[in-house]
Design goal:
It is built from 8 helices and 4 strands; from the N terminus they run E-H-E-H-E-E-H-H-H-H-H-H. With 204 residues, it is α+β, with helices and mostly antiparallel strands. The chain folds into 2 domains: 82 residues, Glutaredoxin, CATH 3.40.30; 108 residues, Glutathione S-transferase Yfyf (Class Pi), Chain A, domain 2 (Up-down Bundle), CATH 1.20.1050. It has a 4-stranded mixed sheet with strand order 2-1-3-4, covered by helices on one side. A hairpin with a 2-residue loop joins strand 3 and strand 4. Helix 1 crosses helix 6 and helix 1 packs across helix 8. The protein is globular and about 50 Å long. 34% of the residues are buried. The protein binds glutathione (GSH). InterPro entries: Glutathione-S-Trfase_C-like, Glutathione-S-Trfase_C_sf, Glutathione_S-Trfase, Glutathione_S-Trfase_N, Thioredoxin-like_sf. It comes from Roseovarius faecimaris. GO terms for molecular function: transferase activity.
Length: 204
């Protein structure tokens, strides 16, 4: 599989899961400074002009949640998506929160032009990021198992995603140690060989 990614982005989550599974993949790093994600060649692969994109034998797949679940389905023996429908739904509730709220809070720092045109609006959005990211940390701290994995004793596809978002906290002005259970999850994930391999890849 070909995997399009970029440094410091949510594509780290896909890279970690690929490493966890041992599936073969070829990483293609996009240069955001050169706006490679906006170029016609890339938009033909991902019309949203974002990362990650996974090129599978069935075609091009976008959206972290869809990609992570697709990868998990290639290795059913790893049980990366809970077999029990309620447990799986609980995991997806966390994942939708990561995609629609936690990540979007972070995006207000550098992608304000998606929502506003005035410079003063950008400044306002940037100023708000430590508060909203802190609120999301508190939500996860209070509502996820984090024992030790996001959903409990077993690793699921939610874990690399949560870890990836937490790599942004420092830059977003949030001290993760204020959320001890989340901080323990971050440290635990950070120690995994998959994360070391993604560092080696140069996107973390
Ligand atoms: N919901 C998407 C979000 C993807 C996304 O926003 N990726 C960002 C990087 S973290 C991106 O590619 N941004 C490029 C841009 O906005 O030009 C997912 O989780 O895959």
């Amino acid at each position: 599989m070909k995997f399009y990614c970029a440094p410091k982005t949510v594509s780290i989550a896909t890279a970690i899961l690929l490493e966890e599974t041992g599936l073969a993949y070829e990483a293609v790093k996009l240069d955001f400074a050169a706006a490679e994600q906006t170029k016609p060649d890339y938009r033909r692969i991902n019309p949203k002009g974002r990362v990650p994109t996974l090129i599978t034998e069935r075609g091009s797949l976008t959206e972290t949640g869809a990609i992570l679940e697709y990868i998990a389905a290639q290795v059913p023996e790893m049980n990366l998506v809970p077999a029990d429908p309620w447990d799986a739904a609980q995991m997806r509730a966390v994942m939708y929160y990561l995609a629609a709220t936690f990540h979007v809070n972070h995006a207000h720092k550098v992608r304000g032009s998606r929502w506003a045109d005035q410079q003063s609006s950008y400044q306002d959005m940037i100023a708000k990021v430590p508060e909203t990211m802190g609120q999301s940390c508190a939500f996860v701290e209070e509502n996820c198992a984090l024992s030790p994995f996001a959903m409990g004793t077993d690793m699921t596809v939610a874990d690399p995603w949560l870890f990836t978002i937490c790599t942004w906290l420092d830059g977003d002005g949030v001290d993760i140690t204020a959320y001890p259970r989340l901080a323990a999850h971050f440290e635990m994930m950070h120690a995994r060989p998959s994360v070391a391999a993604v560092k080696e890849l140069g996107i973390l």
